[in-house]
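User: I'm new to structure prediction. If I give you an amino acid sequence, what do you actually give back? Let's try with this one:
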Amino acid sequence: MKTTYLLLLLIIFSSCKDDISNEKFRNENYVFYQENGKSGKWQKINPELEIKLPKSFSTYFFSNGKRYVELEVIDSFPNRILKFYNKEDKLIRTTTFKSDSVFKTVYENGYYKGYHSNLGLLKSEGQIENEMFQGKWKFYRKDGETIKQIIEYVDDTYHGTRIDFWENGKKRDSTSYINGKLMGKAIHYYETGALEEINFLNDNKAHGKSIRYHPNGKLQAECTYWNGKKMDTCKFYYENGVLKAVDIIKLDTISLSSTWVTHRYLDNGNLEKILEMKDGVPNGKAKLFYENGKLAQEFNIQNNIKNGKVNVYYETGELQYTGFSKNNLLDGKIKHFDKSGKLIKTVIGENGVAIDSILH
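Assistant: Good question. You get back a string of structure tokens that encode the predicted 3D arrangement of the chain. For your 360 residues, that looks like this:
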């Protein structure tokens, strides 16, 4: 497996005075490397190198000369121990790898400051008590200054407010947790800073009123939820404010099974379709409409499959043909009419294929 490890990569092509206390080399550009059974030596860091280290001990440094990390390879690189330090040379974290996967991480108690690399750009900071995250923590992007997240913890668990930020520094989300679960009000924002959504959660599920906005600030959707399921009336809107859909939902709050009727509209305001649904899947009667608002089709649907009687209409509203559908395919006698209502032919279909036709 090829492993890239930020600035902890070295190349053995040049070495310097074999003294780890040599201040000339105690910086972000050098590593003091000691292979098992051999003397230690300074080596230039190569960020492009693929690591294949034998049993060894390496020490990396910040630009101020303090240790950043000590890397001990146990027998081969996939099995290793890394001890991380802060800029005051205090041990803050020990991570053990087995077969190139994290086996265990131990944090030292006290105020923690972790870095993206030995360049010293801040990655995270917060309080460690009993080897666990406690209180308010801040997490930073790779520049070490722009805040990515602010999270409140109790005993390593989300508990309190979590705020996420866009790369431009604007707030992205504000959510609340109780014992690691999303609870209460959640607010989401577009990258521009405009409000995107407000909802309420209970036990990680939407529960209560939910309102969503288009980027232009106009209402996009408003729904009510019960334990993650839609209930009552949900409305959806186009960016210009025209009604896009209405769902009228009957929810059994015990079984969480639901039935509803959904109305979908075109952006000109005309009705596009009416569907009966069960648990989010089309089940029951369905009607489709032309752009001019005239009825185009009506049929029965079971688990999103057409089964039963089908009527299809001309764009002017007259019946064009009627028949039966089986697994989404016309089957049996299909009667065709002209616009005056006169029967003009009967087509015999089998699994969607016409096998005979009778003219009238």
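You can read the tokens as a compact description of the fold. Here is one thing that stands out. The longest strand covers residues 67-76.
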